[in-house]
Amino acid sequence: MKKSIVAGNWKMYLTSSADASILTTTLRNNLSKITADVIIAPPAIWLSEVASILGKNGKVKVAAQNMFYEAEGAYTGEISPLMVKEMAEYIIIGHSERREFFGENNMDVNEKVIAALKAGLTPIICVGEKKKSVNAAQPIKELKEALMHIPKKRFKDVVVAYEPVWAIGTGESADPIYATKVITQLRQYASMETPILYGGSVNAQSVKGFAERPEIDGVLVGGASVKAKEFVKICQIWDEMKSLI
Ligand code: PGA
């Protein structure tokens, strides 16, 4: 069965370890009964602390937000897949903010996806068009290039996050029908078992519309994921809606 996933990308929010610990502890204590897989992606510097609060067998799993594709070496400022693997099960790759502010391209994303799988991490591959359009050409190209050289039998081991760039951090989430259309097209380039998430201004109000769509396997939440009460609510609503369809 395909996974149902609610993931929170903390981005570069939470600038003190005390705040990161409080949020993690609150989520751990309030999400133990959620059926969906819950993943949180703190900034790299808080990974160790967050992982130790959650524990290896806890309900809430850890993702890193980025890594380099080399296993080790003289790469100042970078973290390697092997380092991430000690702290996390998932790795976000190719987020639009990495592409926009740090010049990541589809080739880098592909190298990182390959390195993640090799290290035993589950990549969460982000794709999405910059401008609003029903044409899924850009996300499809990004996904195809992210999965280059990867055998089809491994497609079930990746997660795809469809995140229209115009919807990220704007308060304007995509229409769930629109998102479903793109996700259905992306599915043809992944596998039936690949979980495909929607991301872009998901909050406790908008999550219901995405949870109602059987084609959408989860959500990747940014800004709303660092507000403990709101993220807990998003997980609860997701679970409730998915249990009805
Ligand atoms: P947002 O971010 O929910 O703040 O729009 C989503 C993301 O960037 O993953």
Concise structural overview:
The chain is α/β, with parallel strands linked by helices and 245 residues long. The chain has helices at residues 17-30, 47-54, 81-87, 96-102, 106-119, 137-146, 176-187, 207-211, 228-244, and strands at 5-9, 37-41, 60-64, 90-93, 122-127, 159-162, 196-199, 218-221. It has one domain: Aldolase class I (TIM Barrel).
Structural class: alpha/beta
CATH architecture: Alpha-Beta Barrel
Q: Provide the domain count.
A: 1
Question: Bound small molecules, which ones?
Answer: 2-phosphoglycolic acid
Shape: globular
Binned strand content: 15-25%
Describe the fold and architecture.
The protein has one domain (5-242): Aldolase class I (TIM Barrel), CATH 3.20.20. Helix content is 38%, strand content 15%. The protein has helices at residues 17-30, 47-54, 81-87, 96-102, 106-119, 137-146, 176-187, 207-211, 228-244; strands spanning 5-9, 37-41, 60-64, 90-93, 122-127, 159-162, 196-199, 218-221. The chain has an eight-stranded parallel barrel, surrounded by six helices. Strand 5, helix 6 (137-146) and strand 6 (159-162) form a beta-alpha-beta unit. The chain is globular. The two termini are 15 Å apart. The model has no long low-confidence stretch (mean pLDDT 96). The structure holds 2-phosphoglycolic acid. 2-phosphoglycolic acid is lined by residues 9, 163, 168-169, 199-202, 220-224.
